[in-house]
Amino acid sequence: MTIAINTPHTTPAESPSRTASAGLSHAIRAEWAKLLSLRSTRWSLALTVVGALAITVLTCLHSRSRPTFAFQGFDPTNHALSGLFLDALIVGVLGVLAVTGEYSTGTIRSSLSAVPRRGVLLGAKVIVVGALTLVVGEIISFACFFAGQAALSGAAPTAHLGQPGVLRAVALSGAFLALLALLGLGLGTAVRHTAGGIAAYAGVVMLSTVLVQQFDQGLVKYTPLDIFTNSVTSVLPNGDALSATIGFVLMAAYAAAALCLGA
Fold this sequence. Notes:
Helices cover 73% and strands 0% of the residues. It is mainly α and 263 residues long. It has one domain (24-63, 74-262). The chain has 10 helices and no strands.
């Protein structure tokens, strides 16, 4: 007599890497939906475009009134990107709000329930905030460049993308805004409070140059704001400022340090 033995059917367990990948993709979709649904995001992005273009055009129109001899050493690319100074503040605040808004409303609990691993949740926020601000930053940077050259045309030196260093300055300026947004995200994650996060960002980016200047003028070139205004957006040599590449890498290190602080 033969006895049939039924063996239970088992399904292979998913590998940890596959589970983590699925968790990250789910978290990214959720973060996209949350970030784009916020009114503050829409207003911030609108202000970055309108504000930057307005400041750029006004700055370049004002430069047209200079006497001819005053254009020696004039950097039309740097002037055309002057409107991005306002965006340096706005994108940082956007990065802070991307995380502190959840703490202030209490929705961070539901986010952590859906994505229990904080590292995965933070990684999703980094990808979403970084991608959004990179795309918007590049659009604004190129728009400001062309608007600025149009405003300067006929009365002041102008630049074009084919000139040495110009395309680099315009492209890195847009990417620099994404790094500033990630810096804000990291500080917001560490502080977990909107006002405190914005204050920390303003201190690191806006006030650090002034404070460092009081102690050692030679260290100013390592501060985020000086890197942005004198290294990344410049084509012509600007004193002892860092090169654009070194400045950009240093800013990436600042953003990474802030994210590690908040992790």
